[in-house]
Queue: 4 jobs
Job 1
Amino acid sequence: MKMRYVCIFSIAIIMTTSAFAGVTVTAPANNSTVGTSVQFIASATTGCSKGVSAMGIYTKPYQLDYSVNGSSLNTTLSMSPGTYNTTVQEWDNCGGASTTPITITVTSGGSGVYVTKPSNGGTVSSPVNFVATATTTCSKGVASMGIYTAPYQLAYTVNGASLNTNLTLSPGTYNTTVQSWDNCGGGASTPMTITVSGSGGGGGQVFKNLEAGGGWTGYALLPPGYGICSYCKPGGPEATWSMTQGVSSPSLDGKSTKFTIGGSTKFADILYNNHLIGDFSSQGLPDSNHTLVPTLHNFVYDVQFYGTNLELSQALEFDLNQFFNGTGYIWGHECRIAGGHEWDTWDNVNQKWVPTGVACNPKSNAWNHLVITVQRTSSNKLLFQSITLNGVTHNLNITRSPGSAPGWYGVTVNWQYDGDKNQTPYTVYLDQLNFTYY
């Protein structure tokens, strides 16, 4: 029997050079930490015209612990704690075979991270759906889970032993890690290598670095009504404001945009607006036949912002807007800072801000990464999906009705910064403002 396995491994080494043969292992992920009940999921292809005969799992050389007829397997093996250099193998009906090695670390008591989506080594479109669960030997349970899109780059966290979220990632290959932390100071992780395809593959189109481009118009908004002040000018005196592009420092890419605010009117605000698609498009997408805008349902506002003293801001506002058929969908998001350190969202029907209960505490003298995801549902409601600030995601799942907007057509973004009770001057820098739509 030992010689039979030696021959199988020899054939496998030769046959893996075939462009038509291969073993794809979905679970467990290579180099992952798993519990003692290890689920193996795999499939196989072959260049043999007679197809795949069987598949099997070696937990170590010469030790075949499981085999099944056909070109797929899905089974759970009980394994003692330790590190295993396992091999998943296929045999075809022409006498050939191929293998995929999988190294895993088994921990006692079932601690581990189990990733359902995406598949390790797979190609996906953005936004990328991550689905995972975690177990632990800690009697106090799993505290939280997170996703690293690169070493030391924590892109998402959530409390509890499961996660299901979408991350907007630019095209490229990512060595991601899904991590769990328990309430005893321990944790587990599973590495996942994925390739994100370019735009147009179902993951949406992206306008990049909008802060560095054209199309921005600034306005002053004065209390008590906060309508656009038609007579106000950037030089004041009611409100003062400026926008300077191409700033090298502070900057993430050498070309941030600087925004200032001041003036004599307390609680005055400055609004900047950019028409992206439709009427007055700054991106060359006027959609004159009105065939694009009505088909768009999903939007992502992704931006980095910096301020030396953000506590001087009454609030920072980030809005995504869609208008067509006389209806207005305004996904307004306001981070109240001096106003109370809380996120509000906009009620289109009642024209007011509604507190979410989610804290908003951006850092001064540091870049703050904000990602907002929203959706126009199939029933034409506004869905406020999530807010992610500095890697911490809060799933809002707030649904509201739209308002009216006669005469408007298109998709726009807003950026607004508000003065405090003394209208104290302050400065905010924006960088890497990307907008995804699909």
Job 2
Amino acid sequence: MKRSVLAGLALVGAVGLALAGCTSGGSPGGGGSSEPAPGGGGDGVITVGFAQTGSESGWRSANTESMKAAFSAENGFNLVFNAADNKIEAQIAAVRGFINQGVDAIVIAPIVEDGWDDVLTEAKDAGIPVILEDRTVTAPDDLYASWVGLDFKKEGVIAGEWAAENFGDTPTNLVVLEGTTGSAPANDRAEGFNEAIAGTQIKLLDSQTGNFTRADGKTVMEGFLQKYGDTIDLLYAHNDDMALGAIDAIEAAGLVPGEDIKIISIDAVRDGMLALIDGKINFIVECNPLLGDLAAGLVRDVLDGKAVEKAYYVEDQSFTPEQAAAVIDDRLY
């Protein structure tokens, strides 16, 4: 699969034009409309249906705001927004609704990878191009025009390499808070991390889904603590929100997060970065949520008949507490 890599986008809101071959529809503006314009695309306005996963995390909220700003009326778009509350059936139904409304293009952040073939075929038959944003699908790639997002496996590898470097030579008991079961980030972050710690003395005690939410992260961590107690040395959380929930559970158990139990997380949203600076998290791998300008540029290019790559990867950073403290004041999320 052809792909392009976009590097250095910690301030991606200011460099949304970095996507090669794509043009932004102007400077980001306000939130999108919830109703389509009659006839879709009238008066040069591009009507776009965006099927979001939900609002499960701080990362997702930042991603939604980025998308709404990019697909704003000021930028020449009419955004039909739907958040599926992490219910795949509701998300597929929303996409079918976009097709029936006759939107000009559809953008999807798929909740899970599987189960998309039929509705993507329906969009293709209707002549409506689909752009995937953030997450990927297992459907044939001729059913969508392009994808823009992050390299989830590489994120897992970076997290695992840090774990291996710092704990790989010492017997270390690990627990994992997984993301939504069947989602691309959960699958890939697990695969990358496991590859990086292979052959080390890090031992997996348990791994369960926390559904990318703070509440479930806390609940699952409480269960880990009840079962394994202070024998847990290391926690790997697939996102910051679950790590933050786990911190609450660790503190309630009378342990010190970041000391008694070391914590690795992925996202680098503000609350996670603040916990990193405070020493409650030990290492964070970034997953940049500000993909709106890039997605909007892709939509314009596809509708204009321009050639686009099948995949565009935004390059992530990683942070220690000291590195987080140096950049926190300039972060956009």
Job 3
Amino acid sequence: MVEITDLTEMRGTSRHDATDKRASDAPIPLAAVSAAQWGALGERAIEPNAYYLPDWELAVNASASGRTGAFALAAFDEAPSPRLIGLMPVISLWRACKIPLPALVSAHPYGTFCTPLLDRDMADDAAAKLLQQARNAGARALLLREVALDGPALRAITDHLARDGIAARVLQSHVRACLDATGDGEILLREALGGKKLKELRRLRHRLAEHGAVTFDVARAPDDVASAIERFLALEASGWKGQRGTALIQVAGDAAFIRRATRALAETGQCEIVTLCAGDTPVAAGIVLRHQSRAFFFKLGVDERFAKYSPGVQLTLELTRHLCADPAIASADSTASPDHPMINPIWRGRFAIGDVLIPLQRRDPMVALIAAALVSRQSLQSNARRAVRLIRSRGAKSA
């Protein structure tokens, strides 16, 4: 049985630059991909994914805890000169799931979205070359985690597979909140929440204003984003994430990644940090990425001393109005959990996301083993999460 546990041992992965024609035979270190070519591919991508833009993913790959050292399946159009037409950051199945079977897995970019970048004019060719690279690496399957199930990128991949008589398998799926930003923000909020709920939220906002005038600020310029990210990090660490030790600023590598990524993306107008203040006091802040016509609501931090005024909801209402008023934005992905209690009632659109297993050969029995191992692991994780929720619930009741 062939096992893929360390991509650094693959043929050609450490010797060739990403623009070298020989490098198209196998995965290459993610850091070896030309950032200029990668950025140009992002502009031509058939489907937006801000988490796989170079300024974001290279920052993740450089220092984010548990997410460094990824490789790339990189597809090139060789004529008249090498041009990047497809990119999929990957790690081994062993590293991703501790399963010693020959498969590659889309590398997790911190945001919960891993749809690969494919050139909109050469999507089929890009898909074919990415899949062939995975085969060349010895993989028997490719696991695409958290991809858009109805998106054009996955469709290009599955259409190519279908011509070879290969069918992909969805291992798990869910829907999460998204925003149709093409309409009027006030109308959208009224339809989503109703007049009674909006009246209550306005009352809470007036009470919040007793602590100082309520303002909504959007930081766009690199220096402004660099200042705003520090306010965000402090807010996030002040709440339950800080108590659990999961706030970005509590892990040096994570703090370094988010500072680098947000400033770099601000240089190209692809990052905003939104902040709600009461007087001089920030009460909520969020990181918003932009790619093509889609926004991505990455994270939210709130000052829990103001929890009774619903600062996270108040910020999200302002963000909704802001995005709907921006003609460059057509939609926004919440990148939230499927049952998120705050965003779901406000952003009523739904976006189908799932994990998709791609066989790389026809009728390969190894793929059934890989699928069974992944399903078993998923079941164990689900049971563990239910047990944790039950323990916490019982603890809360007895407190």
Job 4
Amino acid sequence: MHSLLLNRIGVSGPIYFDVFMDLCLYDSSAGFFSAGAVRPGVAGDFVTSPEVSPLFGSLIGTWVSQVSVGGRSSLVEIGAGSGTLLSPLAASLSEGQDIWAVERSQASLKLIASLMPDVTVAASVSEVESANAVVIMNEVLDNVPAALVRRTNSGWDEIVIDREGDELVLAEIPARSEVAAWADSYLDSIPAGSVATVQLAAGALIGEIFEQFDGVAVCVIDYGGSTQELSSRTEVDIVRTYRGQRTGFDFLAHPGETDLTVDVNTDAIATVGQSNGAHVVVQTQREFLNECGAQSTLDDIRDRENAAAREGDVMCQLKARSEGVGLRALLDPAGFGGFKVVTMTRKSAKTIGAPTGP
């Protein structure tokens, strides 16, 4: 990847950061997700909520079963990875529901197809054949390529990747018009000198979902926050890297060798949902999972652990204790529980104003 980038810059000039991020993550020959094995998991490069506890999928299943889009709908997970979320989620639903897994990674699609033969796999949301859908996106938008900008006294500069000899370096040039327009809409409150992400592609993906389906409910789960919340991030935290359960790698020195992530701007995502006629709720993962029954689940786990202790069943006691530890980790406001959840629901136009009875 390093040589590919150097050659491309030598021929065409500096590379915008969103293009650089796309190449590093998804290039078919050298991208972090496309060229290697499936990445999530304890033995992989990073751990997400489904790896912490299968109860994450079961609890989301409660939301899926309760949400109504005005007609029969398919369940669609975008960025399904290894299927760690989709497996317990699908098991919690009634039989007969159409389930789709959407993934850019061919390795992930092959793995899901082999493990879950009843799930239909697709490379993009445009391939999903359903009028209505409930869409889940867990830690997906943080990997959607984003541009980088710096606020100046007169407007916006865009941060690009250039070269000095055989090294990749950061440089700044006047921002593209569409990037500056997005920044004016969502980043107007940040002070001069600040660096921030411009998430045009993430918004476009949410817009594509609303265009693809008539009735649709979307659940986005990711780390991020409002523009105001993100304005407190230090410059070194704007782009994060992960590999082998560690962070802090220099993405310029190791292009294509690490995960690249950015915080999701929930204001921008919510605005896309609202502009498409959806009812939007932004909350923390802790709040969302508690609405899905996490606290009562914890109570049941505690009761099982205490009953096993009274009966001297050590294995059942340890199993229940482990389940409790995992679920509490999902609710921890200083960790996964502090993630943001954006739910956006738009009922099918075919049901709006339809008669409800005789």
